[in-house]
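Teaching assistant's notes for section 4

Start the section by putting this record on the projector. Ask students to predict, before seeing the second block, whether Rab proteins geranylgeranyltransferase component A 2 will look compact or extended. Collect guesses on the board.
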Amino acid sequence: SGLPESIIAAACARSGQRVLHVDSRHYYGGNWASFSFSGLLSWIKENQQETGINDDCEDWRKLILENEEVISLSKKDKTIQHVEDFCFGDQDSAEDVEEAGALPKLPLFGASGAEEVARESEEERPPMESALPDAESREPEKATGTEPASAMEGTDTEIASENESSHSTAFGESTLELGKTEAAPSAISAQEPKKITYSQIVREGRRFNIDLVSKLLYSRGLLIDLLIKSNVSRYAEFKNATRILAFREGKVEQVPCSRADVFNSRQLTMVEKRMLMKFLTFCLDYEQHPDEYQDCENSTFAQFLRTQKLTPSLQHFILHSIAMVSETDCSTLEGLQATKKFLQCLGRYGNTPFLFPLYGQGEIPQCFCRMCAVFGGIYCLRHSVWCLVVDKESGRCKAVVDHFGQRISANYFIVEDSYLSENICTNVCYRQISRAVLITDQSILNTDSEQQVSILTVPPVDLGKPAVCVIELCSSTMTCMKDTYLVHLTCPSTKTAREDLEPVVQKLFNLNTEKETENEELEKPRVLWAVYFNMRDSSGVDKKSYDGLPSNVYVCSGPDSALGNDCAVKQAETIFQEMFPSEEFCPPAPNPEDIIYDEDEITPEESGFSNSPETKPESSTEESSSGGSSAVKKEDNEE
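Reveal the predicted structure now:
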């Protein structure tokens, strides 16, 4: 139930198809999921243990006919490797501490504890319903000046600046307003951060929503457009990324992005301001001036910047913080396209091009799962599929066999890459993503405002190595407890995640647990807890690379290393159009109050809808599990 599969499921259900969406995990999202702190610790244990799944299904092979053959699927998820977690505090003091409001801990595996595990996961993940405008139910102690933006409206005019003060219509909060409302906390809190212990983190574990994949949404990106077009945006809330940072000469500094930022910046001289504005204006319509870059088309973007009479600091800002591209591998055209995309996204919902979903990136797949459930899709978690059943004559997949020994027939099959066995993936060459998640006690760049969502690109020390993308989230994003920050680090892998990312962590943060530290280390944020892991990047793999897959079986990739979500949206739309060329991809869902029925021709029971509050479309999706639906609960009860 990752992002591409969830989008396809929603699109199919919306176009009138019958959809069954199963996941062998006990939570939504796959490698796109978000966890509470205790949920993440359980996930870490799962991936550190070499635990296989036994074939408990008896005589399922009797369901296979003579003219059919079987393609076995993988029983073990092998997309996560090299998981290492570290506590930089007194971990022994938290042994007897339990998460506030949590159920007693139970074994993660075993049929006897399956229902209890489901209940525990439901308790850990906040319900989807409260992702709608009323956020108080999930965060009763709201920090000053951190009122989240409400769900997106269909047009930009409805999100105009004059409406930004209204909670019901404003999408992106103004960074100027944010600065004013958050000016109350003084610099004292930045100089003397509160001491956070590991036992506090465990006790407040449900305040955390920790993403496995770290991404932001471009305000004019494909995912935002899809959320608006399909009305799925009503199920989520978002917050603006408030600042873009740069790491230069060993220091973290803020990058001016908008015209106002450039002219208000004290980092740049007047000459540099004119240079930067002139270059950015050129990038917005560079296609109209091909003579400016034709001579450098075969050069890298970094080499092109050197020909533009820009100072070294401006070249650094543009390359690493605006275009966010590689110094060695990015061509001039690619760099200009990335710069233009950044500039086009400025100002739509805030002072930066980026948005972040409240409660974590894992909310987005659940939003599309919810749309699918509204239109009749059935969801089954903890439901494994053993094999695909293929007709020998036609070569098409006819059915699947699940772990109950049930044979389920369908016309099309969408499977995530991690479910494919090694026999199918012999010719596939996977890339890897290095990931780290840190819990820290203060921001990497302290200001008067504590509630900042920041993005920082740390350039590589050695040429040829990848840059590291750092995203720092504050407590107003509903992803961490008060007085802490959640920091995500991501880069394409060259070694293990710890080997790739620990040098950057040491530059930006204090890892020393001893009381006596140097003054330089005292100025850095202190890491309270950290985890490193490598995640498979299966994006860009051609379907032809998979051996022996039937034509009606489509493969979705896991998360990629890019900052945005364009790859997942493009993949979902491509697969949907291959299956249903004549259908519109994710058309707007009607509002329940706009649906009119002819009582003489269609009764509420026949249509599946009713005006009564128990059965109308909106309430049919109420659930206690994250992102599920009443259909999910019904299926689980039947099981």
